[in-house]
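Friendly challenge for the regulars: who can give me the structure tokens for this chain first? No prize, just bragging rights.
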Amino acid sequence: MWAQPTGLTLGVISRDKIELYVADSESSSVRALDMKTLKGSRNVAGGDKNPKNLFAYGDEDNVGVKAKF
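First reply, four minutes later:
Bragging rights claimed.
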């Protein structure tokens, strides 16, 4: 679930893996979409395990959903 996508960038992981990264300012997260399958997205950093929780923000250096923006 993307609430307010505000920035995009493409990441070439390998010849067979390309991901679109989406900065979602409303959910304070960065999400990735596999450009080969185009099925669902995964949370890279920030936000919450529950993508509908828009109140998981702050200022914390960490990894994955433990990082807060």
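The first strand starts at residue 5 and ends at 14. The chain has one domain: 5-66. Your move, everyone else.
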